[in-house]
User: Fold WRKY transcription factor 18-like from Gossypium australe.
Amino acid sequence: MGSSAWVDTTLDLNINPFHHRNKALRTESQGEMDDSDVKLPFKQENAVLVEELNRIKDENKKLTEMLTALGHCYNDLQNKFMELVTVNSENEVSTSKKRKAECEDYSPNMIGFSNGNTETSCSDEDSCKMPRECIKTTISRTYVRTNPSDNSLIVRDGYQWRKYGQKVTKDNPSPRAYFKCSFAPSCPVKKKVSPALIFDHVQRSAENPSFLVATYEGEHNHAHPSPSEVAILSPKFSANPVSCASTRPSAPTATLELMQPGGYGDGAKKKTQEVDDAPAAIQQVLVQHMAVSLTRNPNFTAALAAAISGRVI
DNA sequence: CGTGTTTGACCTGCGC
DNA sequence: GCGCAGGTCAAACACG
Assistant:
């Protein structure tokens, strides 16, 4: 987290609008005391108002800077979080390896964040050093942002999946769902979908999106179904044959395909690149969106009111 | 009636 | 060997 992103937060927030007015009145009355026969000239009152206007402009500028800094911090935190999730995922996979004692090619694949950070790497040293003959199946992990109110554990990645099981695991109170690819009868690909744990415990709220962890096992032995094929097979998903990284219609969305790494994922790479090249305007929209979210958050407004009242008193 | 989902039972592997 | 936990199966059920 860049410390340079922080700005001076000690603001004169004009929390007591009467203060300056009183000051002006005091000046006015002082003037009356000093020169009781001569009224304060209109010009002087005008100057006071202009001064106050300039001060408010400065405050506005400072607030804008703060908001921008907040946006940077938000992105930094998100990056940190994803690093943490990656580390946790690797640990989880390593324990899974102990249990299953099988060789796997694991490559975490993270898609769907506003900053466009896509991490497709072989960070697990062991799996990277595995002998070639041990690599039997391809496992990729994808983090997908979903609507928190949606508990269906459905990750729309363009394939046709059939749910064959659901299990409550020990370290996650939310059930994990098991899917098989049903687009082709002989397709060996399986998918596990479970809610991201950290969000469940720390950050889930009505306002915050949640994340699903989709673990793909194996490779499709068929081509990616075209939108029309998906529409025929699954009409309810026809409007969105690919996974939508952001389900908020009002927010800037980045629609990314969730593919197998090295398989049909060129589109995902291309679109991720587009996200990387996102102009500063997106940052601006993000900041505005955060500001709206903050102002709509009753907790935030309550805390702000408490802080203001505390300062007034 | 066909298809997909749910859910309890069962299987398998691992740690102690 | 036993218990635990993850993964899978399959009958029952729901839905269009």
Notes: Residues 96, 99-100, 164-165, 167, 169-170, 176, 178, 192 of chain A lie near DNA strand C (CB under 10 Å from a C1'). Residues 200 and 210 of chain A are 8 Å apart (CA to CA).
